[in-house]
UniProtKB/TrEMBL annotation:
Top-level taxon of origin: Bacteria
Any one GO MF annotation of this record: electron transfer activity
Name recorded for this polypeptide: NrdH-redoxin
Gene3D superfamilies, alphabetized: Glutaredoxin
Lineage of the organism: Bacteria, Bacillati, Actinomycetota, Actinomycetes, Pseudonocardiales
GO process annotations (BP): cell redox homeostasis
Domain Glutaredoxin: start-end pairs: 6-63
Length: 88
C-alpha cells in the first residue's frame, strides 16, 4: 500500500529544515510540515525515529522515514513508496 502524504517534522529556526523545505518547494512536491515544538505527539514520533532525539528535519512517507534527508533522498523515497505524489 502506498503512502498518502509526505510529512516533514521540523522546528522554527532549524537551518536544515529551511534547506529541505526550500528544496522540496522548488521541486513542486506537496508535503505537510509539522512543528515539533507546537505538537508534542509529533515530537514523540520524531523521538521514536531518531533514537530518542528530537532531530529535525525528520521525514515520513508511509513506512519509510529518514532523519535529515536531502531533497534528493526524499524525492527518491516518494518515487519508490508514493509515486502518485510526485509533481507532474
Amino acid at each position: 500500500m502506498s503512502a498518502e502524504e509526505v510529512t516533514v517534522y521540523s522546528r522554527p529556526g532549524c537551518p536544515f529544515c529551511m534547506s529541505l523545505r526550500a528544496g522540496l518547494q522548488s521541486s513542486g512536491l506537496a508535503f505537510t510540515e509539522v512543528d515539533i515544538w507546537q505538537d508534542p505527539e509529533a515530537a514523540g514520533v520524531v523521538r521514536s525515529i531518531a533514537d530518542g532525539n528530537e532531530t529535525v528535519p525528520t521525514v515520513v512517507i508511509g513506512d519509510w522515514s529518514a532523519v535529515n534527508p536531502s531533497t534528493r533522498d526524499v524525492l527518491s523515497a516518494v518515487a519508490e513508496h508514493a509515486p502518485h505524489l510526485l509533481p507532474a
